Automatic annotation (TrEMBL):
Annotated compartments: Cell membrane
Pfam families, sorted: BPD_transp_1
Transmembrane segments: 29-55, 83-108, 120-143, 163-191, 222-244, 264-289
Source taxon at top rank: Bacteria
Protein name: Spermidine/putrescine transport system permease protein
Similarity comment: family membership: Belongs to the binding-protein-dependent transport system permease family. CysTW subfamily.
Cellular component aspect of the GO annotation: plasma membrane
Residues covered by the ABC transmembrane type-1 domain: 83-290
InterPro entries, sorted: MetI-like, MetI-like_sf
UniProt record, GO biological process: transmembrane transport
Database matches in Gene3D superfamilies: MetI-like
Keyword terms, alphabetized: Cell membrane, Membrane, Transmembrane, Transmembrane helix, Transport
Amino acid sequence: MTDATDTGLGGLPPVEPFRPTLRERMSGWAFYIPIVFMVLFFALPMALTVVFSVFERTMFWMEPGFSLLAYENFFFSARLENFLASMGYSLISVAVSFCLGFPIAVFVRKSVPQAAQHRVVLLFILPFMVSEIIRIFALRPVLQRNGLVNETLLNLGLIDEPITALLYTHTGVIIGEVLSFMPFIVFSGFLAMEAVPKYIFEVCDDLGAGPVRRFVDVILPLAAPGIFAGAVFIFVNGLGVALIPNIMGGPGAVNAGLIATQAITALDFPLAMAVSAIMMATLMGLLYVGHKLFDLTKILAPMN
């Protein structure tokens, strides 16, 4: 008589239990590595930033406690006025970047052969491969009083004296933000336009829709998620990057990043944490509103 454990059902060999190989187990764990990384180096530090912002300040550091003094020092001082002003300048940078950058994304999607579109968009990403301080500092010889722009305009007879508003002013900060962050709107706008079938442009032409009508009624609604995502990137970077107002702005050019940097220099770490927490809340609020309005996941929709 044959033992039941030696044969399977109907005399067939027994079914061996599934044992994943080492490679399969490793590939399964590889999925969790990015999650662990984001929790340890993004979510946890952001949560600690909020916690540290209510700590009490000491002479050289801070100690556990609960104090809203840092937020009081921000909201009931000139820092709030500077923060709101920098928000206004960042909005101007977003508008200028949209007017200059998004038409590029539309042109690439509409007029450039599909095989070359990604290569063309890559040209607008290449500046990010150069250090930001080099990119910003290189603008000074171009925009200063005796720089390339003023010398060219003077030689052409278009101006009688150098334009002084291009550098060490709020206008200089806006120029620096636009030239630094405009590729964001080009890239995210192109990603959104990739989900727009190319025949849409031909249909609009066949129906006799003019450029303005086609842009407002067709392109803008379809590309809204990408436009909003690029606008958020530019807005938040305009608020947070302290390098641009330091190099391009005058004495009154201050943004949230510079406020936090000044707080760290003054050893007021709870204030620096509070400014960071306010910046983080601003970003999360914008992303929430944008996702509710436009569904930002549409940016990653497959290309047709």
